[in-house]
Amino acid sequence: MVFFDVIFPLNIGPLTYKGPAGYPGPIMPGMLVRAEIKGTMQYGVIRGRAVHIPKGSVKEIHAVLQDRPIFPSPIMNLMQWMSDYYLVSEGLVLKSVLPKDVFKATKSRERVFRSARSLASSVADLSTDPDVVSAIRETISRKEYKTYLLHVPSFMHELSYLSPIIRKARNCIILVPEVSHIEEVSPYLHELVGQRLTILHGRLPRRQRNNAFHRIISGDSDIVLGTRLAILAPLNSPSLIAVLQEHNRSYKNLEGLRYHARDIAVMRGYMEKSTVLLSSPCPSLESFHNSTIGKYSFLTHDNTGQRPRIEVINMKVAKKITTHLSKRALDATASCIKNKGNALLLVNRKGYSILQCADCNFIESCPECRIPLVYHKNKGILKCHYCGHTDNSTDICRRCGSSRFDMIGAGTQRIAAELEQHLHVKPLLFDKDVLNEGPDHGDLQHITLGEETVVGTKVITKRLPKSESFNLCIFLNPDMQLHLPDFRSAELLFQEIVSTSECVKDGGLILIQTRMPEHHVFRYVRTYNLNDFYKEELSVRKSLAYPPLSRMVLFTITAKGEIEEMLAKALTDTGGVVEVIGPVRTSGKSQDQWKLLLKSSSKEYLHRYARSVLQSLEKRKGFRIVADVDPISI
Ligand SMILES: [Zn+2]
Ligand SMILES: [Zn+2]
Questions:
Q1: In the chain, what are the domain boundaries?
Q2: What dotted CATH number matches 117-300?
Q3: Per CATH, is 551-629 categorized as 3.40.50.720?
Q4: Residue 277 CB: number of other CB atoms within 10 A?
Q5: What separation in Å is there between the alpha carbon of 50 and the centre of ligand 2?
Q6: What is the CATH number of domain 3-98?
Q7: How many angstroms separate the CA atoms of 212 and 198, rounded?
Q8: What is the largest CA-CA distance in the chain?
């Protein structure tokens, strides 16, 4: 009798079953099966021969669904590695990659989104460095593992390097951060490689997602374009794994299995001897650091051509029209409009402002989240931007009964109102509220062009097709971001400014209002000086022992009552190798949620320690603990 370990897409480890009696062929790891678990039939995947044979009666595998593996063995190995690295069960890893009803799919042709013409011409106009292309091609042909970090001026440049490479390569995975990138890029790639292309992302209807899966497994398609989950596409030994916009935070999955698709790309490349190409106009500090220590090979596109000029306005001394609007910014907007151009004003917050009682300084805050509510003038309400809680008390202070309020800070609505007052324009508002109002409002395709002035939050720059652009872009209050309690805030702001520059036309202008012009973000971003910015940022991280010069595991704990005593037992002596920070109550919805951070310069030791903490706590009743390995924010 042969026993097999089966993984189910459930948050549990592998379970052992007897091999199905009378099944004629060999049973291999990665094959899809059906088996009974707690009285119901479930789809699962063969992990391999059983490691331990359990005593007592063992159930039999009910059916083997296909005569070949749905996941090639390197992907099974990769999933096992992910389960180990991210401190989760193998079931949870499978759950995030196995489409439901995967065996029911029928084959169909890929749907083409829309015309590829505009993108094709903008990519074709760009020159590429032939040495860079041939270096990457050469590595692919050698079938050896190697990771390149390619620094280019724009997303279009990333595509211009990618296209000659994939045209000649077989079995490629191309990752982009958002579905909107897929919609933008897929018609172009389709024109380039035809039916070889398959699209894979989490928002595909189930049927299409299954089709994609089958087209890949059957070999009908060998180029996969997708978002983060496509990194586990069941492609046979990929020759190239390309991660476009590699700095983008959307590559990190924030729920369930908290993996980072860029890191998995590098690991998969290593395990399958693939060439990994990470590209970006503003690489992440992690990747940059990896290229300085020789883990990745750094490639750069020398001829950056014309980039928009960046001007920093010192708000401590600049002439101001209102508290938030410098004369320079207003004049630039006016002249842009006069010259029939279009301007984009970026604000850090939606809504109008925060209301503070002028008499007793009271600020109404969310009863759930305990953060200040934001006044939305258009609807006459106060709103929590975290949970959506609303309140109508905008007339009278709840604490002292005063009806006099001061407006603190400026959101999109307030900036729009000020522009209307001073320039007599009616700007288009674009923030998350607008996006949520429906697809008609949320589709930028037909609204940006022709609008002379747009006031938005950074949501707009994420959604804006890279081929559309403005003559002027103004960052009104970027300092707010630097005050966030996030050690990556400077890096993020630098990346945001560089990314936004892609939405500005050649010869256009970017203005940045700040009260901290001496900050290294502003000192270096003026000249797009990534190297010097990162050198300084690395020294800051080093002095505080933050990643990439250390590793972190963040635990989120949900429990009733006090948890210190329980934690004290679990947090054994770290020998000074792991720094334990917290527990700190979170400001989120629940009163019973805590964060506990582990930090260390030793990856291996941190990992072992985190696992032991997890193991001693996760089985407790009324206690929930979730690990986030390499969290992107704390
Ligand atoms: Zn008051
Ligand atoms: Zn709230």
A1: 3-98, 117-300, 309-353+409-543, 551-629
A2: 3.40.50.300
A3: no
A4: 28
A5: 49
A6: 3.40.1440.60
A7: 6
A8: 85
Residues, CB-to-ion distance under 5 Å, ligand 1? 357, 359-360, 362, 397, 399-400, 402
Distance 247 CA to ligand 2 centre (A): 30
Report how far ligand 1's centroid is from the alpha carbon of 372 (Å).
Answer: 15
Q: Which segments of 499-550 are extended strands (E)?
A: 504-514
Q: Can you spell out the DSSP letters for 327-378?
A: HHHHHHHHHHHHTT--EEEE-S-SSSBEEEETTT--B-B-TTT-SB-EEETT
Mark 331-370 as b/e (b = at least 16 C-beta within 10 Å).
ebbbebbeeebbbbbbbbbbbbbbbbbeeeebbbbbebbe
Same fold yes or no, 3-98 and 551-629: no
pTM of the model: 0.88
- Strand-pair partners of 4: 17, 49
Distance 587 CA to ligand 2 centre (A): 9
> In whole angstroms, how large is the CA radius of gyration of the chain?
27
C-alpha separations of 220 from 110, 198, 213, 486 in Å? 11, 9, 10, 45
- The torsion angle over the Cα atoms of residues 572, 578, 579 and 583, rounded to 10 degrees, is -50
pLDDT 10s digits, 150-189: 999 889 899 999 999 999 899 999 999 998 889 889 999 9
- Helix, strand, coil % in the chain, rounded to nearest 5: 35, 25, 40
User: How far is it, in rounded angstroms, from Cα 234 to Cα 76?
Assistant: 10
319-355 residue pLDDT tens: 999 988 999 999 999 999 999 888 999 998 888 888 9
Distance (angstroms) between ligand 1 centre and the Cα of 363 equals 8
d(CA 630, CA 551): 7
Q: Does domain 309-353+409-543 have CATH number 3.40.50.300?
A: yes
Residue 251 CA to residue 242 CA, distance in Å, equals 13
Torsion of CA 448, 454, 457, 462, to 10 degrees: 20
Under 8 Å between Cβ of 99 and 211: no
- Ligand 1 centre from 400 Cα, in Å? 4
Distance 403 CA to ligand 1 centre (A): 8
Ligand nearest to the CA of 372: 2
